[in-house]
Every structure is written in C-alpha cells, then in structure tokens.
Amino acid sequence: MLTKPKRNQKQISLSRRNTLVGLSFIIPNFVGFFIFVLIPVIFSLALSLAEWDGFNAMKFNGINNFIAIFKDRVFRGSIWKTAYFSIFTVFFSMCASLGLAVLLNQKLKGKAIFRCAIFFPYVASNVAIAVVWNFLFRDIGPINSFLMHIGISDPPGWTASTVWVIPALVIVNVWKNMGYFMIVYLAALQDIPGSLYEAAQIDGAGSFQQFKSITLPMLTPSTFFVVMMLTINSLKVFDLVYLMTEGGPGTASTMMSQYIYNQAFISWSYGRSSAAAMVLFLIVAALTAFQFRMEKKWVSYM
C-alpha cells in the first residue's frame, strides 16, 4: 500500500519534467512568432485602415487606403507584373529543376561537382548576383555580343527595356533558385523504388512511359511543395528586383513588394503601404489554399 503512492509520485514528476522539457522547446518559438510575426501583422492591419506618415498622429481612414491604391495605375500594374513574373518563374523553375534532377540522378562522372555548382547560386549573395547579371545584360555585354555573333542584329535591351526587363528578371530568378529545388526533386527521385522501373521494363514500357507513369506520379508531393514555395517566393520577390532595376525602367518592373516599399519609405504613406501589403497577403493566402485543395484532388485522382 505504501509503494504505490511513491510510484505515482515518480510518474507524475517524470511527466511534469517531460512537459517542461517540451515547453522549453515550444515556448521560444511561440514567443518569437508572437513578437515578430503576429504583432506586426495585427499592427499592419490597423495601419491599413489609418492614415499615418510615421511622425504625426495616426488618423482612422476606413477603407480609403484600399480605394486609393486600386485607383493608382502603378499598383494595378504591379499586380499584373507580379502575376506575369510569378507564372513564368514557377513554370520554368519547376521544369529546369526537374530536368536537372533527372539528369544528375543518372550514373555520370563528376555529378557531385555539377550538383554543387548548380546549387551554389542559391546560397550566393543577391548583391553579387545582381551586379554580375547586370553586366551580362548590358547593351554591349557578353549576352548581346553572343546574340549578335549568331546573327541577331538587334538584340534585346534586357533591363533597359520595358518589354524585356521582366523576362530578364525571370531568367535570373530561375537560374538562382533551380539548384535548391533540384535537390528537392533529387531526394524524391532517390526514394522511388527501383523495382517499379524494373517491372515497367519487363512490361515493355519505354523511358518516356516510365517517366510519365511512375516518376511524375511519385513526385506529386515534391511537386506540390516546389510549386507552393516558388509561388509564394515569386509573389513577394523584392531584393533581386530592387538590386537589378529598382522597379524600372520607369515602373516596368515594379512588383507589389516594390510598391509596398515605395509607399512606406519613399512616399511615407504607411497606410497605403499596409493596405497594399494586406492585398498581397490575401492573394498569397488564397493561392495557397487553392493549391492545397488542388493537391488533395490530384492525389485522390492519382
């Protein structure tokens, strides 16, 4: 009769200790999220309904900030430019990453060196990347010199052209990100059982049929992750665009994030900046929810 309470007390103390250990790992995360994410988001939401320049008193403004930004031609244009940039960045990044992963998953000599070389741009400094690519895209730079050498007498103006500036940014962004997502696809490819390909070969399936019927369906979770991450990163792209073009020429490459920055730190209109940030947040949230819904349908269909 006397031993049972002692055992119960030991079990309770052990349970409490495990709980405290678990909380010690979780609480700092929640505190960081609360201070650096939740409070700024709530404050930004409040600012979107107010007029404030950072110096004078804050005044309630209702939805006037939202009305003002949607009347602004630059903001409306930034939505379409961001969509244009995001669609092509996601598509070409996904294709390039998957193609490189399939290629480097083969038995090739020195493939480890190629993997490191392709992954390196992802960890390189954005400042260095912007400087190098601006040099490459110059009117008399290496890219245009090569195009003229192969017979194109009037090569694109790239970052100096209102037509070619976003394609140039897409090229740089794809080149920078494809190494990281190649690693994601490469890990997924190596998890596919080899017995599936062996069975397909016995049944007479060719390489393309194996890729279509085995590789792509087995890569569904990785493809969903890649598309979601690329979409979110493309919609909120800022640093690379700012370093290469600063939103120019004119407003030809002004993305939504650039518009938010300009309103806050150039025009000192924190209300309009926050309103634009809320619009971007809603777009990202809606697309993420849509992707999750489509992923469930895709998995059930497969």
What does the model show?
The chain is an all-alpha fold and 302 residues long. The chain contains 13 helices and two strands. A two-stranded antiparallel sheet has the order 1-2. A hairpin with a 7-residue loop joins strand 1 and strand 2. Helix 3 packs parallel to helix 7. The radius of gyration is 26 Å and the shape is flat. The protein starts with a helix and ends with a helix.
Write the topology of this structure:
Elements: H1 3-47, E1 50-51, E2 59-60, H2 64-71, H3 73-104, H4 111-123, H5 126-136, H6 142-149, H7 165-190, H8 194-202, H9 207-218, H10 220-235, H11 239-244, H12 256-265, H13 270-301
Antiparallel strand pairs: 1-2
Q: Helix proportion of residues, in percent?
A: over 70%
**Rg (C-alpha, Å):** 26 Å
Biggest sheet: strand arrangement:
1-2
Secondary-structure class: mainly alpha
Order of helices and strands: HEEHHHHHHHHHHHH
Poorly predicted sequence stretches spanning 5 or more consecutive residues: none
**End-to-end C-alpha gap:** 60 Å
Shape descriptor? flat
Strand content: under 5%
Major pleated sheet? 2 strands, antiparallel
Total count of helical runs of at least 4 residues: 13
The average pLDDT value, as a whole number, equals: 88
**Counted beta strands:** 2
Quickly list its features.
302 residues, mainly alpha, two-stranded antiparallel ribbon, 2 strands, 1% strand, flat
